[in-house]
Specification:
Layout: H1 2-16, H2 19-34, E1 39-42, H3 46-59, E2 71-73, H4 78-87, H5 95-101, E3 107-112, H6 118-130, E4 133-138, H7 145-148, E5 151-154, H8 160-182
Parallel strand pairs: 1-2, 1-3, 3-4, 4-5
């Protein structure tokens, strides 16, 4: 356990080195909201839970009272998830939603530890084709996802627990900066 805590501390220190990137991400989300746009968040497994967490922080509140901000987790509508998966294929589950909901100037925010999830990659490709801005949180290599994002934080680790811990810290910092703007 001590070794794991030490590794967590190393990862947190590495996140601190990427604060400029996180600030740019937050500023881009603010600019999107100011222009009347929306944020669509997606991921699989623990990253799906993180996507829902991010959307909840933006629509509800993080630490301060302020207006609701337009964010949607693409991981929550079971009818869409099961229909697209059954009728078209799981690799299209997020891309179809991006195609149907997102517009140029909106933000598609993807989370993937490996950066290689086919459904995340297709969603980012769809976002690019419609002119949506792409933000990503991923692991060490970034996979194909890193090249599809306009801004992408890569956590210097390969295991899902350490990467997701860093993602949670990163998106809390981003949400805090956004909320300070609106509070």
């Amino acid at each position: 356990m001590r070794t794991q805590i030490e590794e967590h501390q190393r990862i947190v220190a590495a996140v601190a080195e990427q604060v400029d990137l996180l600030e740019r991400m937050a500023d881009r989300v603010i600019a999107c909201f100011e222009a009347g746009g929306r944020v669509y968040v997606l991921g699989n497994g623990g990253s799906a839970a993180d996507a829902q967490h991010i959307a909840a922080e933006l629509v509800g509140r993080f630490k301060r009272d302020r207006r609701a901000l337009p964010a949607v987790a693409l991981t929550t509508d079971t009818s869409i998830l099961t229909a697209v998966t059954n009728d078209i294929g799981f690799e299209h589950v997020f891309a179809r939603q991006v195609e149907g909901l997102a517009r140029a100037g909106d933000i598609v925010w993807a989370l993937s530890v490996s950066g290689r999830s086919p459904n995340v990659i297709r969603a980012l490709e769809s976002a690019r084709s419609i002119g949506a801005y792409r933000i990503g949180l991923t692991g060490r290599t970034g996979g194909e996802m890193a090249g599809l994002c306009d801004l992408c934080m890569q956590v210097d680790h390969d295991t899902s627990d350490r990467v997701q811990e860093a993602h949670q810290l990163a998106y809390h910092l981003i949400c805090d900066r956004i909320e300070r703007h609106y509070a």
